[in-house]
Design goal:
Blueprint lengths: L1 H4 L3 E6 L9 H12 L7 H22 L6 H16 L3 E5 L6 H10 L4 E6 L9 H12 L6 E4 L7 H17 L7 E8 L3 H5 L4 H16 L6 E6 L12 H11 L4 E6 L7 H18 L3 E4 L7 H13 L3 E2 L2
Parallel strand pairs: 1-2, 1-3, 3-4, 5-6, 5-7, 7-8
Antiparallel strand pairs: 4-9
Length: about 325
Protein backbone atom coordinates (compact mmCIF):
# COMPACT_ATOMS: atom_id res chain seq x y z
CA UNK A 1 0.00 0.00 0.00
CA UNK A 2 2.85 2.37 0.70
CA UNK A 3 4.09 1.84 -2.86
CA UNK A 4 0.60 2.61 -4.21
CA UNK A 5 0.24 5.91 -2.40
CA UNK A 6 3.85 7.13 -2.57
CA UNK A 7 3.59 9.87 0.01
CA UNK A 8 4.62 10.42 3.64
CA UNK A 9 1.52 12.34 4.72
CA UNK A 10 -1.87 13.40 3.37
CA UNK A 11 -3.48 16.78 4.03
CA UNK A 12 -7.26 17.09 3.85
CA UNK A 13 -8.04 20.68 2.85
CA UNK A 14 -11.26 22.43 3.73
CA UNK A 15 -12.67 25.89 4.35
CA UNK A 16 -13.06 25.84 8.13
CA UNK A 17 -15.57 27.52 10.37
CA UNK A 18 -15.99 29.13 13.80
CA UNK A 19 -16.03 26.87 16.85
CA UNK A 20 -17.85 29.49 18.94
CA UNK A 21 -19.56 32.86 18.61
CA UNK A 22 -16.36 34.80 19.36
CA UNK A 23 -14.64 33.20 16.36
CA UNK A 24 -17.25 34.26 13.79
CA UNK A 25 -15.83 37.71 13.07
CA UNK A 26 -12.14 36.62 12.93
CA UNK A 27 -13.19 33.81 10.58
CA UNK A 28 -14.98 36.30 8.32
CA UNK A 29 -12.00 38.67 8.31
CA UNK A 30 -9.77 35.87 7.02
CA UNK A 31 -12.38 34.92 4.43
CA UNK A 32 -12.96 38.44 3.09
CA UNK A 33 -9.25 39.27 3.13
CA UNK A 34 -8.62 36.30 0.85
CA UNK A 35 -11.53 37.07 -1.48
CA UNK A 36 -10.72 40.74 -2.00
CA UNK A 37 -8.35 41.64 -4.89
CA UNK A 38 -4.71 41.52 -3.81
CA UNK A 39 -4.03 44.95 -5.33
CA UNK A 40 -6.73 46.65 -3.24
CA UNK A 41 -5.29 49.35 -0.93
CA UNK A 42 -6.07 48.86 2.77
CA UNK A 43 -7.37 45.38 1.98
CA UNK A 44 -7.21 44.14 5.57
CA UNK A 45 -9.13 47.17 6.86
CA UNK A 46 -11.82 46.68 4.23
CA UNK A 47 -12.05 42.99 5.11
CA UNK A 48 -12.45 43.89 8.77
CA UNK A 49 -15.22 46.34 7.95
CA UNK A 50 -17.07 43.80 5.81
CA UNK A 51 -16.69 41.17 8.51
CA UNK A 52 -18.07 43.57 11.11
CA UNK A 53 -21.15 44.16 8.95
CA UNK A 54 -21.65 40.48 8.18
CA UNK A 55 -20.92 39.03 11.63
CA UNK A 56 -24.37 39.60 13.22
CA UNK A 57 -26.07 37.78 10.33
CA UNK A 58 -23.59 34.90 10.41
CA UNK A 59 -23.82 34.61 14.19
CA UNK A 60 -27.59 34.26 13.94
CA UNK A 61 -27.12 31.39 11.48
CA UNK A 62 -24.67 29.54 13.72
CA UNK A 63 -26.89 30.05 16.76
CA UNK A 64 -29.63 28.17 14.93
CA UNK A 65 -27.38 25.13 14.40
CA UNK A 66 -25.91 24.91 17.90
CA UNK A 67 -23.58 27.92 18.06
CA UNK A 68 -20.66 26.62 16.01
CA UNK A 69 -19.63 24.94 12.78
CA UNK A 70 -19.38 21.13 12.92
CA UNK A 71 -17.05 21.09 9.90
CA UNK A 72 -13.84 20.52 11.86
CA UNK A 73 -15.36 17.62 13.79
CA UNK A 74 -16.51 15.90 10.61
CA UNK A 75 -13.25 16.54 8.75
CA UNK A 76 -11.14 15.19 11.61
CA UNK A 77 -13.33 12.08 11.72
CA UNK A 78 -12.78 11.64 7.97
CA UNK A 79 -9.02 12.04 8.46
CA UNK A 80 -8.96 9.47 11.26
CA UNK A 81 -10.83 6.86 9.23
CA UNK A 82 -8.81 7.51 6.08
CA UNK A 83 -5.58 7.15 8.04
CA UNK A 84 -6.69 3.70 9.19
CA UNK A 85 -7.23 2.71 5.58
CA UNK A 86 -4.06 4.05 3.96
CA UNK A 87 -1.65 3.55 6.88
CA UNK A 88 -0.23 7.03 6.37
CA UNK A 89 -0.57 10.15 8.56
CA UNK A 90 -3.64 12.14 7.51
CA UNK A 91 -3.84 15.74 8.72
CA UNK A 92 -6.58 18.36 8.50
CA UNK A 93 -5.82 21.87 7.22
CA UNK A 94 -8.48 24.58 7.27
CA UNK A 95 -8.11 27.71 5.17
CA UNK A 96 -9.72 30.26 7.49
CA UNK A 97 -9.74 28.65 10.94
CA UNK A 98 -7.83 26.12 13.03
CA UNK A 99 -6.03 23.89 12.32
CA UNK A 100 -4.10 26.30 10.08
CA UNK A 101 -1.58 25.33 7.43
CA UNK A 102 1.47 26.95 9.04
CA UNK A 103 1.28 24.84 12.20
CA UNK A 104 0.46 21.61 10.38
CA UNK A 105 3.31 22.05 7.87
CA UNK A 106 5.84 22.93 10.57
CA UNK A 107 4.84 19.83 12.54
CA UNK A 108 5.20 17.64 9.46
CA UNK A 109 8.59 19.14 8.65
CA UNK A 110 9.67 18.44 12.24
CA UNK A 111 8.60 14.81 11.83
CA UNK A 112 10.84 14.60 8.74
CA UNK A 113 7.98 13.95 6.34
CA UNK A 114 9.28 14.76 2.85
CA UNK A 115 6.46 13.88 0.45
CA UNK A 116 3.03 15.44 0.89
CA UNK A 117 -0.26 14.81 -0.89
CA UNK A 118 -2.93 17.52 -0.75
CA UNK A 119 -6.54 16.34 -1.02
CA UNK A 120 -9.06 19.21 -1.17
CA UNK A 121 -12.48 18.17 0.09
CA UNK A 122 -14.04 20.10 -2.77
CA UNK A 123 -14.92 17.67 -5.59
CA UNK A 124 -15.03 20.58 -8.07
CA UNK A 125 -12.11 22.98 -8.49
CA UNK A 126 -12.34 26.72 -8.05
CA UNK A 127 -9.55 29.21 -7.59
CA UNK A 128 -11.44 30.54 -4.56
CA UNK A 129 -11.47 27.21 -2.73
CA UNK A 130 -8.94 24.66 -3.94
CA UNK A 131 -6.46 27.12 -5.44
CA UNK A 132 -6.56 29.40 -2.41
CA UNK A 133 -5.46 26.53 -0.16
CA UNK A 134 -2.82 25.43 -2.67
CA UNK A 135 -1.35 28.93 -2.87
CA UNK A 136 -1.17 29.22 0.90
CA UNK A 137 0.59 25.87 1.29
CA UNK A 138 3.04 26.62 -1.52
CA UNK A 139 3.98 29.94 0.08
CA UNK A 140 4.41 28.44 3.55
CA UNK A 141 6.44 25.48 2.26
CA UNK A 142 9.20 27.53 0.63
CA UNK A 143 11.40 27.52 3.72
CA UNK A 144 10.59 23.91 4.72
CA UNK A 145 12.49 20.87 3.48
CA UNK A 146 9.82 18.93 1.62
CA UNK A 147 11.06 17.08 -1.45
CA UNK A 148 7.67 16.78 -3.14
CA UNK A 149 4.17 18.19 -2.80
CA UNK A 150 1.39 16.85 -5.00
CA UNK A 151 -2.29 17.74 -5.15
CA UNK A 152 -5.44 16.09 -6.43
CA UNK A 153 -6.88 19.33 -7.88
CA UNK A 154 -10.39 17.93 -8.45
CA UNK A 155 -12.25 14.65 -8.39
CA UNK A 156 -15.72 15.62 -9.59
CA UNK A 157 -15.67 13.05 -12.41
CA UNK A 158 -14.00 10.14 -10.61
CA UNK A 159 -16.15 7.06 -11.09
CA UNK A 160 -16.00 6.14 -7.40
CA UNK A 161 -17.46 9.53 -6.46
CA UNK A 162 -20.16 9.52 -9.14
CA UNK A 163 -21.20 5.95 -8.29
CA UNK A 164 -21.25 6.77 -4.59
CA UNK A 165 -23.38 9.89 -5.00
CA UNK A 166 -25.77 7.99 -7.26
CA UNK A 167 -26.05 5.16 -4.74
CA UNK A 168 -26.69 7.62 -1.89
CA UNK A 169 -29.56 9.19 -3.81
CA UNK A 170 -31.06 5.80 -4.71
CA UNK A 171 -30.74 4.65 -1.09
CA UNK A 172 -32.50 7.80 0.13
CA UNK A 173 -35.33 7.52 -2.37
CA UNK A 174 -35.86 3.90 -1.39
CA UNK A 175 -35.65 4.60 2.35
CA UNK A 176 -38.23 7.39 2.09
CA UNK A 177 -40.46 5.37 -0.25
CA UNK A 178 -40.25 8.07 -2.91
CA UNK A 179 -41.19 7.23 -6.48
CA UNK A 180 -38.58 8.54 -8.88
CA UNK A 181 -41.18 9.49 -11.48
CA UNK A 182 -42.97 11.77 -8.97
CA UNK A 183 -39.81 13.19 -7.35
CA UNK A 184 -37.74 16.15 -8.51
CA UNK A 185 -34.02 16.20 -7.67
CA UNK A 186 -32.72 19.71 -7.01
CA UNK A 187 -28.93 19.67 -6.90
CA UNK A 188 -27.59 22.58 -4.84
CA UNK A 189 -24.04 23.90 -5.14
CA UNK A 190 -22.21 26.74 -3.44
CA UNK A 191 -22.52 29.89 -5.50
CA UNK A 192 -19.76 31.97 -7.05
CA UNK A 193 -19.75 35.47 -8.59
CA UNK A 194 -20.47 35.16 -12.31
CA UNK A 195 -17.52 37.37 -13.24
CA UNK A 196 -15.12 34.66 -12.04
CA UNK A 197 -16.70 32.11 -14.37
CA UNK A 198 -16.30 34.60 -17.23
CA UNK A 199 -12.62 34.90 -16.25
CA UNK A 200 -12.17 31.15 -16.78
CA UNK A 201 -12.90 29.49 -13.44
CA UNK A 202 -14.00 25.91 -14.30
CA UNK A 203 -16.24 25.49 -11.25
CA UNK A 204 -19.54 25.83 -13.11
CA UNK A 205 -18.62 23.44 -15.91
CA UNK A 206 -17.31 20.84 -13.46
CA UNK A 207 -20.37 21.13 -11.23
CA UNK A 208 -22.70 20.83 -14.21
CA UNK A 209 -20.82 17.77 -15.43
CA UNK A 210 -21.15 16.10 -12.02
CA UNK A 211 -24.89 16.71 -12.00
CA UNK A 212 -25.40 15.55 -15.58
CA UNK A 213 -23.43 12.33 -15.07
CA UNK A 214 -25.26 11.44 -11.85
CA UNK A 215 -28.62 12.17 -13.48
CA UNK A 216 -27.66 9.87 -16.35
CA UNK A 217 -26.68 7.10 -13.94
CA UNK A 218 -30.04 7.53 -12.22
CA UNK A 219 -31.87 7.35 -15.55
CA UNK A 220 -33.47 10.78 -15.15
CA UNK A 221 -34.90 12.86 -17.96
CA UNK A 222 -33.95 16.54 -18.17
CA UNK A 223 -37.23 17.66 -16.60
CA UNK A 224 -36.70 15.52 -13.48
CA UNK A 225 -33.73 17.41 -12.07
CA UNK A 226 -32.08 20.82 -11.94
CA UNK A 227 -29.20 22.77 -10.44
CA UNK A 228 -29.41 25.75 -8.10
CA UNK A 229 -26.81 27.82 -6.25
CA UNK A 230 -26.74 28.97 -2.65
CA UNK A 231 -24.71 31.01 -0.13
CA UNK A 232 -24.62 34.30 -2.03
CA UNK A 233 -22.93 37.19 -0.24
CA UNK A 234 -22.92 40.84 -1.31
CA UNK A 235 -24.74 42.65 -4.11
CA UNK A 236 -22.87 41.44 -7.21
CA UNK A 237 -24.33 38.99 -9.70
CA UNK A 238 -23.75 35.37 -8.72
CA UNK A 239 -24.46 32.09 -10.47
CA UNK A 240 -28.16 31.55 -11.13
CA UNK A 241 -30.75 30.32 -10.50
CA UNK A 242 -30.53 30.36 -6.74
CA UNK A 243 -31.72 27.32 -4.80
CA UNK A 244 -34.31 29.57 -3.16
CA UNK A 245 -35.64 30.59 -6.57
CA UNK A 246 -35.77 26.96 -7.66
CA UNK A 247 -37.96 25.76 -4.77
CA UNK A 248 -40.34 28.66 -5.42
CA UNK A 249 -40.63 27.85 -9.14
CA UNK A 250 -41.19 24.17 -8.37
CA UNK A 251 -44.04 25.15 -6.06
CA UNK A 252 -45.69 27.23 -8.79
CA UNK A 253 -45.39 24.37 -11.27
CA UNK A 254 -47.23 22.02 -8.92
CA UNK A 255 -45.98 18.99 -10.83
CA UNK A 256 -44.12 17.09 -8.10
CA UNK A 257 -45.13 15.21 -4.98
CA UNK A 258 -41.63 15.37 -3.51
CA UNK A 259 -38.51 17.50 -3.99
CA UNK A 260 -35.15 16.18 -2.80
CA UNK A 261 -32.32 18.69 -2.45
CA UNK A 262 -28.94 17.10 -3.18
CA UNK A 263 -25.90 19.09 -1.96
CA UNK A 264 -23.39 18.61 -4.77
CA UNK A 265 -20.33 20.69 -3.84
CA UNK A 266 -20.28 19.74 -0.15
CA UNK A 267 -19.18 16.53 1.54
CA UNK A 268 -19.85 17.36 5.22
CA UNK A 269 -22.54 19.05 7.25
CA UNK A 270 -21.90 22.70 8.07
CA UNK A 271 -23.81 25.97 8.05
CA UNK A 272 -24.64 25.71 4.34
CA UNK A 273 -26.52 22.44 4.85
CA UNK A 274 -27.76 22.69 8.43
CA UNK A 275 -28.98 26.29 8.26
CA UNK A 276 -29.38 27.26 4.62
CA UNK A 277 -30.89 24.03 3.30
CA UNK A 278 -32.52 22.62 6.43
CA UNK A 279 -34.02 25.88 7.67
CA UNK A 280 -33.93 28.74 5.15
CA UNK A 281 -34.64 26.82 1.93
CA UNK A 282 -36.98 24.37 3.67
CA UNK A 283 -39.11 27.24 5.04
CA UNK A 284 -39.27 28.81 1.58
CA UNK A 285 -40.33 25.51 0.06
CA UNK A 286 -43.05 24.99 2.66
CA UNK A 287 -44.45 28.47 2.00
CA UNK A 288 -44.33 28.22 -1.79
CA UNK A 289 -44.82 24.57 -2.57
CA UNK A 290 -47.46 21.88 -2.37
CA UNK A 291 -44.77 19.18 -2.30
CA UNK A 292 -42.84 17.43 0.46
CA UNK A 293 -39.32 18.80 0.96
CA UNK A 294 -36.34 16.53 1.66
CA UNK A 295 -32.58 16.97 1.85
CA UNK A 296 -30.08 14.21 1.08
CA UNK A 297 -27.98 13.53 4.21
CA UNK A 298 -24.36 14.60 4.04
CA UNK A 299 -21.62 12.01 3.76
CA UNK A 300 -19.54 13.10 6.78
CA UNK A 301 -17.41 10.11 7.87
CA UNK A 302 -19.59 7.31 6.50
CA UNK A 303 -17.60 4.23 5.54
CA UNK A 304 -18.87 4.48 1.97
CA UNK A 305 -17.52 8.01 1.63
CA UNK A 306 -14.17 6.98 3.11
CA UNK A 307 -14.09 4.36 0.34
CA UNK A 308 -14.31 7.26 -2.14
CA UNK A 309 -11.52 9.23 -0.46
CA UNK A 310 -9.32 6.14 -0.40
CA UNK A 311 -9.90 5.58 -4.11
CA UNK A 312 -9.20 9.24 -4.90
CA UNK A 313 -5.93 9.12 -2.93
CA UNK A 314 -4.82 6.02 -4.78
CA UNK A 315 -6.12 6.57 -8.29
CA UNK A 316 -7.12 10.16 -9.08
CA UNK A 317 -4.74 12.23 -11.26
CA UNK A 318 -2.30 14.44 -9.36
CA UNK A 319 -0.53 17.66 -10.12
CA UNK A 320 3.01 18.21 -8.85
CA UNK A 321 3.55 21.50 -7.00
CA UNK A 322 7.09 20.82 -5.80
Amino acid sequence: MEDEIKTDAILLLNLGGPSCNDEVQPFLIELFDDLLPKWLPFKKKIASKLACLRAPISKSYYEKIGGSSPLRKHTEAQASKLQERVKKPVNVVMRYSAPRANRVLEALAGSRAQRLLLLPLYPQYSRFTTQSSIDEIKALSRHLQFTSIEVVPYWYSEQSYLSFLTAQIEKFLSGENLEKIRTYLLFSAHGLPQKYILQGDPYLSQTTETVTKVATLLGLTSDQYGLGFQSKMGKGRWLEPSTLQCVEVLGKQGAWEDVVVVPVSFVSDHVETLYELDILVKEKAQRCGNYRYHRLPMFNDSDEFIDVLEDVVKNAPRTRLL
